[in-house]
Automatic annotation (TrEMBL):
Domain of life: Bacteria
Alphabetized InterPro entries for the sequence: Pyridox_Oxase_N, Split_barrel_FMN-bd
Organism from which the protein derives: Paenibacillus odorifer
Lineage: Bacteria, Bacillati, Bacillota, Bacilli, Bacillales
Protein name (record): Pyridoxamine 5'-phosphate oxidase N-terminal domain-containing protein
SUPFAM superfamilies, sorted: FMN-binding split barrel
Family annotation (Pfam families): PNPOx_N
Ranges where the Pyridoxamine 5'-phosphate oxidase N-terminal domain occurs: 10-96
Length: 150
């Protein structure tokens, strides 16, 4: 691991301004244990703030309201980054999306290279949306537009 910095570098900022697969790690509000969930509705507002949109049916919404400390794990630039921060509700519900979502802003407290010493990623994980491609594209467009406006 490398030393932490308190904001995103230019490459991470650019990467997180388009659709990106990450892991969102929260503290479960019921058990107090760690949780990890893959998400793609996130957007870097600035080098010090990342915005997330979460479906209200997800436990993540309550987890972050009860304990705002989170980690976002990003796979990219040949490495793995851990972005630690504190989440606060930005807009609830998120406007102009077809179902109830909560929008959070994450104030970045630390960004670290989290890949073990002597390793490098050959490629970032890739995913495919397995439902109606046009519907997915439309929904993603609505969510990202609403997040940017929030």
């Amino acid at each position: 691991m490398s030393e932490a910095v308190a904001q995103l570098n230019e490459t991470l900022l650019s990467m997180l301004q388009s659709e990106t697969f990450v892991l969102l790690n929260t503290v479960d509000a019921e058990t107090g244990g760690p949780t990890s969930t893959a998400i793609s509705w996130l957007y870097a507002v600035s080098p010090s703030t990342v915005r997330l949109a979460i479906d209200h049916r997800s436990r993540l919404v309550n987890n972050m309201k009860v304990n705002p400390l989170i980690t976002i794990t990003v796979f990219g630039e040949g490495t793995v980054y851990a972005i630690n921060g504190s989440a606060a509700v930005r807009q609830d519900p998120l406007e102009d999306v077809p179902f109830k979502m909560c929008c959070f802003d994450v104030e970045i407290q630390a960004v670290r290279n989290a890949l073990f010493y002597g390793a490098q990623l050959d490629s970032a994980p890739r995913y495919a949306k397995v439902y109606d491609g046009r519907a997915a594209e439309k929904l993603d467009g609505q969510v990202f537009a609403a997040m940017k406006k929030a």
